[in-house]
Amino acid sequence: MRIGIxxxxxxPWRGGAExxxxxLAKQLGKRGHEVVVLCGNAPLGPYxxxxxxxxxxxxxxxxxxxxxxxxxSLPLKLLGEDLDVIHANFPSPYNxxxxxxxxxxxxxxxxxxxxxxLPSVTMVARTLVLAHDELVLPLYLxxxxxxxxxxxxxxxSSRILRGHGDRVVVVRNGVDTGRFNPxxxxxxxxxxxxxxxxxxxxxxxxxxxxxxxxxxxxxxxALALLKDVARLHLLVVxxxxxxxxYQDLADRLGILERVKFAGDVANEELPEYYAASDILVLxxxxxxxxxxxxxxxxxxxxxxxxxxxxxxxxxxxxxxxxGLLVPPNRxxxxxxxxxxxxxxxxxxxxxxKNGRAFAEQHDWSIVVEQxxxxxxxxxxxxxxxxxx
Length: 388
Hints:
Elements lengths: L1 E5 L9 H15 L3 E7 L7 E4 L2 E6 L3 E3 L2 E3 L3 H7 L4 E6 L2 H14 L3 E5 L8 H18 L5 E4 L2 H6 L1 H4 L5 E3 L16 H6 L6 E6 L11 H9 L7 E6 L5 H11 L5 E5 L6 H6 L3 E4 L10 H8 L4 E4 L4 H4 L6 E4 L4 H12 L2 H16 L3 H24 L1
Parallel strand pairs: 1-2, 1-7, 2-4, 7-8, 8-9, 9-10, 11-12, 11-14, 12-13, 14-15, 15-16
Antiparallel strand pairs: 3-4, 5-6
């Protein structure tokens, strides 16, 4: 098959959707398919390249609307590609709309992965989201043959997805269990960051205003409550314009010396940071968190995880098995859960082993096979309809 995948960004840009698209495209290529990814050019220049065996068309970004890149040439780029199927990724109404239009004009089927509902991060955004959901979404969503949800929880709880149950298919996110594995050593990272004898909480996420929902501020407030846990440090992986704001918060809370800001970490080095930690925490505040790929990556390295009962997180964490679930926006309860895991070696080690077993059930090879089957079903249905 010739498959076109459309997303806002692509590595080295870091994000859950970008990890999803990269691994999906790479694995599809290994299975003999021709794959082209069409995406915004940031943080690189606009050009066409082959990246890890995947053809990537990095399209010039003319501007952004609430974090979503606007790429005026995307429609023409899509129409110019020889494709059998188009696979778009949401939440980008811009990409989804033009993918639907291009699929209709080319007479080919289209699929959409619904990573999460549009986040209402401000009052203005809330108004625009409502207008989009009521007026614009009905214009293009019916054009997608299948809508992929990445968790059962999100498929059931999303107001939008519940209205399209016959076309919504759950295909869970995956993890590269070869690259992320318990044999990876974190010693070099610990030594370089002066964490040799410390207990390390890991947070992985972008430090941008569009990712405030990740809850780093909640985690910092929880850390401030854990003054009785000796040599406890928070390691933050990720960059963005809010880094100074989080540094100021750490200073006000009196924990600045216990927070290590590692910045953006090269993708190939990321497993070492998971290995350098004792536990990963994803304290997301609301349902903007559609899945939480970092949870799977930490589990794959054999680390227990703590997350909140929001969005798709409860589909990834089995409370008491591979990690713990806590209510969102509750630093006290988060602090209690962190202390519980860090002070109980037996529980922490068992959760890490369980996490590895859980991750092995979600290897990208499984995800890609399920997605490939959806492409084939969409093509068969499309061809059947054309023949009638």
